[in-house]
Amino acid sequence: MEKRSEEKDKIDFASAFEVREVGIVKSIQKIIAIATGLPSCVSGQMLEFVNGEKGLVIGFTEDEVQILVLGSAANLRAGCEVYNKGQFLSLPVGKGFLGRVINALCAPEDGMGDIDSSEEYPVFKVAPGVMERIPVEKTLETGTLSIDAIIPIAKGQRQLLIGDRLTGKTSVAIDAIINQKGKDVVCIYCCIGKTHSSLLKVIETLKDRDVLSHTIILSGTASTSPGEQYLAPYTACMLGEYFMNNGGDVLVIFDDLTRHAWIYRQISLLLGRAPGREAYPGDIFYVHSQLMERAGYLKPDLGNGSMTFLPILEVQQGDVTGYISTNVISMTDGQLYFSTPLFNKGFRPAIDFGLSVSRIGSKAQWPAIKSLSRTLRLEYLQYKELVQMTQLRATGLSKSAEQLLRRGEAITQLLIQDKNDPVPSEVQVAYLYALSLGILDELTVSEIKKFKKEFVGKVNEWDRSLLPVISETREFKDANIERMRRCLQRYFEQE
Ligand code: ATP
Ligand code: MG
Q1: Is 85 in the pocket of ligand 1 (CB under 6 A)?
Q2: Residue 358: which of 368, 347, 345, 370 has the closest Cα?
Q3: Whose CA is nearest to atom 16 of ligand 1?
């Protein structure tokens, strides 16, 4: 009895006194506050200014602390107090964030009122270790045929989308969100340093396709403070971790990390750190890798959740050898390279298969798609080579070369896909099967387009359970092959 009252005293004592260190701001340099009198704070800790604004400890000199102001620095003056409560930066998480647009500090930006949350998570967190993870085992269906068939992405994978401006990178990422409808995957779109209007377009598309309810939009647009833009991807990751730790699957899109690197460079230059290659600070590799590490697939006793990352990088003139691109390429499990010439030729999504790779995705691919797409990449690349050669020498092609040309053209037409119109995996199986039979080789461009538009409707009319069965079993075997063959035969007979 006595012991219990002792414990009670302890609790009262702790809540009655707030431990805090008081520092004084010495100067403000745009978004950086320099303070003295905070001897015990460490990097990554959160401080609070006297006006309630939050700051992040980002560096030190011998007796000063460098603080990145996370909100607006406009109302801060030299001489004001700054408090250290010994806390690391943590922000609210929860299901209430689904369907909402928020900023990097988890405050609502959509004018729809407060967001309910009972838990907080640390924004900067050490990624789960190897023993806490398992190899990838499920596929992330992006709904883009060229990706799912040729460069598949697995849940828990980090796949980089890299390419010049206006090559359709965002569109492919948004299609992946649209395709998660009804698949129980939480999607997080994190906008970093992009224009507000481009973000509004994304929100509009997601609303239009009715997929906002499983999506969180994190706005770190160019008009928000640099501190928020720097923080945005970490906050997105933190929100994803909440769902992953509760056993869910999460897809996070960082649009884009080039701008995140710019912001970090700007902050570092303000801090007076020595610029290194391309004027980026030496720790930019660490900044991105500690983020990329946090994707993964947790083992069953930790809930079996997963977090997949699709970071986007913008390059100039197709040059992927820059500092940031080589860094991020080295820390991801593959990349999709978007090419301007392909985009301009009308091959959209403009993914260059020669330069794109997925190192682990095929392990988790649907068996049905895997078996049908085995030779697709090779056939397509051979076709591209042949096209280049025949531009020089158009006559005297062998029969097999002619056949390859026809097949290549059919593949090209099959892979061309409009944006915001993802193709479900079972439909992809149907297309790939038709291709494997060689039926599409004989068709003209407009006939293939017509086939893509009409065939699914016909299958559902003639054999209603076929596509659902393929979707459920993820396999394409004996009886189902025969059923699909009959549908194809019927479709082309009536043509
Ligand atoms: P940015 O560099 O501005 O971020 P981006 O590489 O993300 O550009 P998007 O914004 O996705 O590219 O697309 C650029 C333009 O191309 C848009 O106008 C979009 O409508 C169009 N587009 C993208 N994908 C397709 C597609 N599959 N079919 C037709 N048009 C497309
Ligand atoms: Mg974009």
Answers
A1: no
A2: 370
A3: 168
Which sequence positions are flagged as catalytic?
359
Domain 372-494 class in CATH: mainly alpha
Per residue in 360-408, pLDDT (tens digit) is 988 999 999 999 999 999 999 999 999 888 776 666 778 888 899 999 9
Could you tell me which residues come within 8 angstroms of residue 342 by beta carbon, excluding any fewer than 6 positions away? Answer: 348, 350, 351, 352
From 146, 166, 203, 421, the mutation candidate for ligand 1 (largest count of ligand atoms within 8 A of CB) is 166
- C-alpha dist (Å) from residue 154 to 160, 175, 304: 13, 16, 14
Centroid of ligand 2 to alpha carbon of 222 (angstroms): 13
| Residue 3: per-residue pLDDT | 47
Residue 11, pLDDT above cutoff 70:
no
Averaged over 188-198, what is the pLDDT? 97
At the fourth CATH level, the homologous superfamily of domain 92-365 is: P-loop containing nucleotide triphosphate hydrolases (3.40.50.300)
Fold classified for 18-88: Elongation Factor Tu (Ef-tu); domain 3 (2.40.30)
Q: What is the pLDDT of residues 280-296, one digit of tens each?
A: 999 999 999 999 999 99
Ligand 1 atom with the smallest distance to the CA of 338 is 6
Query: Which atom of ligand 1 approaches the CA of 255 most closely?
Result: 4
pTM of the predicted protein model: 0.93
Q: Looking only at Cα atoms, what is the longest distance across the chain?
A: 101
Decide if pLDDT at 142 tops 90: yes
The residue contributing the CA closest to ligand 1 atom 12 is: 168
How far is it, in rounded angstroms, from Cα 307 to Cα 201? 25
